[in-house]
Design brief:
The complex is a heterotetramer. By secondary structure, chain A is an all-alpha fold. Chain A has three helices and no strands. The N and C termini of chain A lie far apart (51 Å). Among the domains of chain B are: 82 residues, no CATH class; 33 residues. Chain B has a two-stranded antiparallel sheet with strand order 1-2. Chain B is globular. Chain C is mainly alpha-helical. Helices cover 70% and strands 0% of the residues of chain C. Chain C is globular, with a radius of gyration of 19 Å. Classes of the chains: A mainly alpha, B mainly alpha, C mainly alpha, D alpha/beta. At the A-B interface, helix 1, helix 2 and helix 3 of A face helix 1, helix 2, helix 3, helix 4 and helix 5 of B.
């Protein structure tokens, strides 16, 4: 477990996440891609904190902020999905062609 | 910083688990399964964090993600056609482009990881990670922490407004219609009387 | 070294879980008998005989279940119970894993339990099990928050997220007196996470056994065992968070701890037999409108008390 | 041998019995509920013996076969006053309730010790509807929509949401006729959204229930009021047992059942039972004002349901014998689930008081052109099956609320045979035949 291997793992997670976020048609699956990206980001942040930043407290703080971002992303995402589903009965990105209903 | 062999072994296993389950998220037929695969990936990363001495963050990760993925799974069941994975499913667009984008971003980031020189400044033994995080959150970075709190509160309010059934101007789904089974076809899966709502659709 | 760090903790957790789960079954049988259920084999024998029967029974299939999740869920629930018990201190030194953030780990065990119980009901691919799973999520999402606030309340006076420190902070006064709202609220959480008695929304009679309605044979035995084990783990957490854990005069610490765990178990099992199942809608309303605000009050109380 | 001690141990477990409640099979199940060493379970998966109690109409043999095949091996069947299925001709049949529990225990013992083979599977082990293999994705629909994989429609939100605006895919299933939470014989098609009932369509009515012979005698001539009232109390207490067990109050349910089996129970013990129910939170936590009947429906249902809705409908107030005892019908106002249980408890207490009084004076009924049965007034016409009113009452309720409402309502038709006659199997068969015709 070195900084390099940790960053490689984070890169792999981010790569898969980008694939998912770009390829998935379903809103919810798309959000899963975003979450996976953030997963990689958090891992990288903690890795830097532990192995490169000499335990500077801001490293952990960054991770906490990313967690908050994840919560916000998910909540907003689901609210939008619910709203779009109500008006358009659509749960895939192709289902909405315009922003009004 | 040198870790004992057992830690390295665990790390390799967890890394494989995190990547494989992360990949399975997009390769399984069932939406519910997908969200729990994502949870497994998060848990694996959380354990790695604990191995890195970030004890609070790792455990908080289990906690947050368990709840988050549970909610996710419920939304899956609500919005998806195939929650149980009884049917084959592959709902993707711009597939080749996405694979390429994922691969390229991995390669770029991996190159950074391999080629860049990062300072080797491991955690000193006298730091108590949990205490230092607490002091930071409620000390120097209190503003950031509290702003995150305010943003979360705002999100909650916004989310309730967005998703509430009744708005100022009547029911949220007024005049809505489902998409057709074929492009431009009749609305799918709605009771007969909803078709009259379809006539309304032409107005805008 | 290996003995102290690996064998002893595993042994401790296994023995307490197995013996504890057996005692849960026995106590429950005794309570049911005392309340008027005609008893057959006798309280000490009945759980063993039922276990033996389940071992002899075939594990059935349903139409297109999610096999992996269905078979894994009982085992995972048992594993969660073991993880939960692993952070419970039996004496200042006798702790399976003395994690610095053990209180938060207990919280994540609660959250993951919701996931596992949902998975158990969902993966069976039958109607009644699925309804049980849905319902349980509604309950689970409500009790997790209550538990979080109550546990932060006990962490405040200890100035630590470690169960052993929480116990040590109760040297002068147990938390059950210092924060009188804490234990009752935490007991509700316990009933919720083991879906026992009044909060049995997952495996209830109106669903013919809910998430377990389509399970038979050894998997059902593991599921029942895991439920009882989770109750034991919970009683350990409750005893160390509120009843002063190993603290007590005359007797050695671990004995005190076991006695307190038994007391918590007895109370929970008695509630389970005396109260009806709460209707899901009423239950969720109670959780969010009554118990959650009460847990805020508990936290404020704990904060003010800590500042004093 | 390692296996044999495990088997011997398993043989000592209390016998898990899944009861299939046929026509007029209820009575013996109440007795089994009080028998030590026998456990009535709710799911066929949790049983080692399938007890078919009472006759099953031939058109429901298919359902019976499906229940039979759900029991995990090793299992056996026992037929109580019921004709075994043709494939199971060698299965044990017992008509004497006194030897039933012994037979069940012996059967379980033999099964566990390997002296008796498991009952054979009756249906092929394959999906009821094969994989259709149609369309792009194999389920016969377009993309992710539509289609009938395994012969069942995909869950889709075909219905407008009727409660909170969170539309979930709805799921349509057929339940019954042997689901232990429903009245025996009732089979319904339910559309669920999550655990919310969207539609409820009664497919098969519940089996008729037999009353004690004293109600029939009351139509022939004067009968002692004490006997009539005790029979009434017994009926209600058994009904209460079912509901309390469903609500998770097993101990109190058994108390109610024991009261029903005592020949001369004291009204004070019913009052105690009510106090314990109130204290346990039965009225506060499990009944929350659902299942309210309007006046017209309540009148149609009759009996306890009508009086719980405030209608003073009671044949007993027409009878001089009753008037002599100072009988006045009790009523409640709300007409919901809780009110029906308060009414039931009050009526049981009243019945036992009337019985005690009538015993002293040896009062008899005077009129014989009608009788108040526990199910409603029997005057010129029988209380009929009212289960179709559930179709309007239950949609919009959650599963738990719907079932507690259903348990509080007594909608079953009355059998033209009395309990004593109907328990003879030929009669059960005759009813089955009649039903089929």
């Amino acid at each position: 477990m070195t900084l390099m291997t940790l960053l490689l793992l984070a890169a792999a997670l981010i790569g898969i996440g980008i694939y998912g976020a770009l390829s998935q048609q379903s809103f919810v699956m798309l959000m899963m891609g975003l979450e996976l990206i953030l997963n990689g980001v958090m891992l990288a942040a903690v890795a830097f904190w532990a192995l490169s930043g000499a335990g500077a407290p801001e490293g952990q703080l960054l991770t906490i902020v990313v967690m908050a971002v994840m919560a916000i992303e998910m909540a907003m995402g689901f609210a939008l999905v619910v709203a779009v589903f109500r008006t358009n009965q659509a749960d895939v990105t192709e289902g909405i062609t315009e922003l009004k209903h | 910083m040198d870790y004992p062999l057992i830690v390295d072994v665990f790390f390799v296993l967890l890394a494989i688990l995190a990547v494989v389950s992360g990949w399975r998220v997009f390769a399984t037929d069932s939406m519910v399964r997908a969200s729990f695969f994502l949870l497994v990936s998060f848990i694996a990363v959380g354990v790695i964090m604990i191995l890195l001495a970030a004890e609070y963050l790792g455990v908080a990760m289990f906690f947050m993600m368990a709840v988050e993925m549970m909610v996710m799974a419920i939304f899956m069941v609500m919005f998806m056609m195939n929650p149980a994975g009884l049917n084959p499913m592959m709902m993707v667009h711009q597939h080749k482009f996405s694979i390429a984008a994922g691969a390229v971003s991995f390669l770029v980031l991996a190159a950074v990881a391999l080629l860049a020189e990062f300072p080797d400044n491991p955690l000193s033994a006298d730091i108590d990670p949990v205490r230092s995080l607490g002091n930071e959150l409620l000390g120097d970075s209190m503003l950031i922490f509290e702003s995150a709190g305010i943003v979360l509160l705002t999100t909650m309010i916004g989310v309730v407004v967005l998703s509430s059934h009744n708005g100022r101007y009547g029911a949220a789904e007024e005049g809505s219609m489902p998409p057709g089974l074929v492009p431009g076809g009749d609305p799918a899966g709605m009771p007969e009387e909803e078709d009259e709502g379809g006539g309304h659709h032409h107005c805008h | 070294m290996i003995f102290n760090e690996l064998i002893l903790p595993v042994l401790l957790v296994t023995v307490v879980l197995v013996v504890g789960a057996y005692l849960v079954a026995v106590i429950d049988e005794v309570i049911a008998g005392a309340l008027g259920r005609p008893s057959g084999a006798g309280a000490w024998m009945a759980p063993l005989a039922q276990g033996a029967w389940l071992l002899n029974q075939q594990a059935n299939a349903t139409e297109a279940p999610d096999w992996r999740a269905w078979r894994l869920a009982p085992a995972l629930y048992l594993a969660l119970a073991a993880i939960g018990l692993a952070v419970v201190p039996f004496s200042p030194t006798l702790i399976a894993t003395d994690l610095v953030t053990s209180v938060v780990l207990w919280g994540s065990v609660e959250a993951l339990a919701t996931v596992v119980i949902f998975l158990h009901g969902w993966s069976a691919n039958t109607l009644l099990a699925l309804i049980g799973a849905y319902r349980y999520v509604a309950l689970g999402l409500s009790y997790i928050l209550i538990s979080m606030f109550v546990l932060i309340g006990v962490a405040l006076p200890a100035e630590s997220l470690q169960f052993s420190q929480v116990v040590a902070s109760q040297e002068e006064l147990w938390n059950v007196i210092r924060q009188p709202l804490g234990l009752p609220l935490f007991l509700i959480v316990g009933l919720g996470m083991t879906f026992w008695g009044p909060l049995n929304l997952a495996d209830s009679r109106d669903l013919a056994g809910g998430t377990a309605s389509a399970v038979s044979g050894p998997p059902r035995l593991v599921w029942n065992l895991a439920r009882a084990a989770m109750l034991v783990a919970f009683s350990g957490a409750a005893a160390s968070a509120f009843l002063g854990g190993w603290l007590g005069p005359w007797l050695p610490g671990p004995v005190w701890m076991l006695l307190k765990m038994l007391a918590v178990l007895a109370v929970l099992l008695l509630i389970g037999r005396l109260m009806p199942r709460v209707q899901p809608e009423r239950c969720v309303t109670l959780m969010w409108v009554v118990f959650l605000p009460l847990s805020f009050v508990d936290l404020i109380w704990a904060g003010v008390e800590a500042l004093w | 041998m390692a296996v044999s001690w495990l088997q011997r141990l398993a043989a000592r477990a209390s016998v898990p019995v899944f009861p299939v409640r046929g026509m007029h099979g209820e009575e013996v199940l109440y007795r089994l509920a009080l028998t030590p060493g026998v456990e009535l379970v709710d799911s066929p998966r949790h049983a080692s013996i399938l007890l078919v109690a009472g006759g099953v109409p031939p058109d429901q043999y298919g359902a019976l076969r499906r229940v039979h095949d759900q029991l995990p091996a090793p299992f056996a069947t026992l037929w109580y006053r019921s004709q075994p299925l043709d494939e199971l001709a060698s299965a044990t049949r017992i008509d004497d309730p006194d030897v039933l529990s012994g037979a069940l225990k012996a059967m379980h013992h033999e099964l566990m010790c390997g002296k008796r083979g498991s009952s054979p599977r009756l249906l092929p082990d394959e999906p009821p509807n094969p994989w259709e293999g149609l369309g792009d994705d194999g389920h016969g629909g377009e993309g992710m929509m539509g289609g009938v994989p395994y012969g069942r429609p995909m869950a889709m939100n075909m219905h407008d949401d009727i409660r909170d605006g969170l539309t979930l895919d709805s799921l349509t299933v057929t339940l019954g006729p042997f689901l232990p939470m429903l009245p025996p014989g009732l089979s319904v098609e339910v559309t669920l959204q999550g655990d919310l009932i969207q539609t409820w369509t009664t497919r098969d009515p519940p089996y008729p229930i037999a009353l004690e012979s004293v109600f029939f005698q009351a139509l022939q001539g004067p009968v002692p009021i004490a006997e009539l009232e005790r029979a009434m109390a017994r009926y209600h207490l058994k009904h209460l047992y079912f509901a309390l067990r469903l609500a998770g109050l097993e101990a109190l349910a058994l108390t109610a059942l024991r009261l029903a089996f005592e020949s001369h129970s004291n009204p004070k013990r019913v009052a105690t039972l009510r106090r314990r129910l109130v204290r346990s939170g039965f009225f506060g936590l499990t009944t929350t004002g659902q299942g309210r009947l309007d006046e017209e429906t309540a009148r149609r249902v009759g009996g306890v349901a009508a009086r719980a809705a405030g209608l003073e409908e009671d044949w007993r107030s027409e009878d001089e014998g009753y008037r002599q005892l100072g009988f006045r019908p009790l009523t409640q106002r709300q007409g919901d689930t809780g009110a029906r249980w308060r009414q039931t408890l009050a009526e049981v207490e009243q019945s036992l008081q009337l019985a005690a009084q009538a015993e002293q004076d040896a009062t008899h009924t005077r009129h014989s052109d009608g009788v108040e049965t526990p199910r409603g007034t029997w005057h010129r016409q029988w209380p009929e099956d009212q289960s179709t009113l559930l179709d309007d009452l239950l949609p919009g309720l959650e599963w738990d609320e719907a079932l507690s409402t259903l348990a509080s309502l007594d909608l079953v038709p009355l059998s033209p045979w009395s309990l004593e006659e109907a328990s003879g199997a030929p009669v059960a068969q005759a009813i089955a035949e009649e039903r089929r015709a």
